[in-house]
Design brief:
Layout: H1 2-32, H2 37-61, H3 69-95, H4 99-112
Length: 135
C-alpha cells in the first residue's frame, strides 16, 4: 500500500513537472531554436510514455494477485528508469545549454510588460493589525 501511494504521488508530481515543461519551457526553447522542433516533439512523446508507464506501474501495484506480479513490476520499473535516464540526458545535452538564453528572454519579456499599479498599502478603513487584534 505504501509503495502504491508513493507511485501515485510520483505520478502527480512528475506529471505536474512534465506539464510545466510542455506548457512553459518547450515553447520557449522552440522560439529560441526552431531547429529543435523534432527534438521537442520527441521529448513530449517521452512524457506521454512516462505518464503511461507510471499509470501501468500503479495499476500493477494494485493487483498483487496476478500471476508474474513481481517480475512484471521489476520490468516496468526498469523500463521507466531507463526511459527517464534517456529523456534527462536529451534535455541535458540539447536544452540545458539554451537555458540561460531562455531565462534571459523570459526576464526581458517580463521587464517590457507594463505592470499593474501596486494596490494602496492601506486602503481607507483598513488596518495593519492582524485580524485577531481588531476591535
Amino acid at each position: 500500500a505504501l509503495l502504491h501511494e508513493r507511485v501515485a504521488r510520483l505520478e502527480q508530481r512528475f506529471g505536474a513537472h512534465m506539464a510545466s515543461e510542455e506548457r512553459v519551457w518547450f515553447p520557449r526553447f522552440a522560439a529560441l531554436a526552431p531547429q529543435l522542433a523534432s527534438t521537442l516533439d520527441s521529448l513530449c512523446a517521452d512524457h506521454q510514455e512516462l505518464r503511461s508507464m507510471l499509470v501501468a506501474l500503479g495499476v500493477r501495484l494494485g493487483r498483487p494477485d496476478v500471476h508474474g506480479h513481481d517480475e512484471h513490476l521489476v520490468v516496468l520499473a526498469r523500463d521507466l528508469v531507463d526511459l527517464l535516464r534517456l529523456h534527462m540526458r536529451k534535455e541535458e545535452v540539447l536544452l540545458f545549454p539554451l537555458l540561460p538564453r531562455a531565462l534571459a528572454r523570459s526576464v526581458s519579456a517580463r521587464a517590457l510588460k507594463p505592470s499593474s499599479p501596486d494596490p494602496e498599502p492601506n486602503p481607507p478603513g483598513a488596518t495593519n493589525r492582524p485580524a485577531g487584534d481588531r476591535p
